[in-house]
TrEMBL record:
This is 1-acyl-sn-glycerol-3-phosphate acyltransferase. It holds the Pfam family Acyltransferase. InterPro entries: Plipid/glycerol_acylTrfase. Coiled coil: none annotated. Keywords: Acyltransferase, Transferase. It comes from Microbacterium pullorum. Residues 57-176 form the Phospholipid/glycerol acyltransferase domain. Signal peptide: none annotated. SUPFAM superfamilies: Glycerol-3-phosphate (1)-acyltransferase. GO terms for molecular function: acyltransferase activity.
Length: 259
């Protein structure tokens, strides 16, 4: 595990990290792809009014399937961005072009995966998105649950929330693993998916982002809210598979989190 001294708030930790705006692909995705998906899968959406219509917000969700990152933007009342591994965007030829445009269309932006500087760059990218007033989606578990249980949350999401002051809206996804289980290459036509948005959480009372205890307590509050929405069995352990969410790699460069 790589350990890096946590920087002071005013210290420049990364190079220039761009924050892309909304392009034509995203407009098509939101107004064409999303309505078609809702027509085919007829999702049950609850608590849309809990998502603030303006300002930075983190949508923190359980993670059951590859399509979770499409289900959340589809159900959200406002545009949602998330980070995806850069390899989805750098392919060649028609296949590479299609992959790149598709991920842009659903609100994804590329980031390099890894620990050390790559993890700090991912964190800085997410922070800039929030500072720009965007809604972003993250998975505290770090990677998809293979057995359907809800695993303990990593503290990266709490770190971002405490550092930026952005509220966290917990999200409970139900049934996405029935449409596209782990390992499946294509989605299936299955029973309805449920997307539940909980009430926004203000985590500032736990303390500063520099405190490991504050991050751990804030994360536990987030996970308790997600559990109340999803109704999953608790695993009471970390999902130790390699993190699919690049921002959750920051656990390798932050001071040791309290368990």
């Amino acid at each position: 595990m790589v350990t890096v001294q946590q920087p002071e708030p005013d210290e420049q930790t990364t190079g220039e990290v761009s924050v892309p705006g909304i392009g034509l692909a995203y407009v098509i995705g939101r107004w064409v792809i999303a309505p078609l998906a809702r027509l085919f899968y007829w999702p049950r959406i609850e608590g849309r009014g809990n998502v603030p219509r303006k300002g930075p917000v983190i949508l923190a969700s359980n993670h059951l399937s590859f399509i979770d990152s499409f289900a959340i933007p589809m159900a959200s009342p406002r545009p949602v961005r998330f980070l995806a591994k850069a390899s989805y965007f750098d392919g060649k030829g028609i296949k590479g072009w299609f992959s790149r445009e598709f991920f842009y269309a659903v609100g994804a932006f590329p980031v390099e995966r890894g620990a050390g500087q790559a993890a700090l760059d991912a964190l800085d990218q997410q922070k800039r998105m929030l500072e720009a007033g965007w809604a972003t989606a993250l998975y505290p578990e770090g990677t998809r649950s293979i057995d359907g249980r809800l695993y303990k949350g990593r503290t990266g999401v709490a770190f971002l929330a405490l550092q930026t002051g952005a509220p966290v809206v917990p999200v409970g996804l139900i049934g996405t693993n029935e449409i596209m289980p782990v390992g499946a290459k294509f989605p299936r036509l299955r029973p309805r998916v449920t997307v539940r948005f909980g009430e926004p959480l203000d985590l500032s009372h736990h303390g500063p982002a520099s405190s490991g205890r504050a991050r751990r307590l804030a994360t536990d509050e987030i996970m308790a809210a997600i559990h109340a929405l999803s109704g999953q069995e608790l695993a009471n352990a970390y999902n130790e598979a390699p993190a699919q969410n690049p921002v959750e790699r920051i656990r390798q460069v932050l001071p040791h989190e309290r368990r």
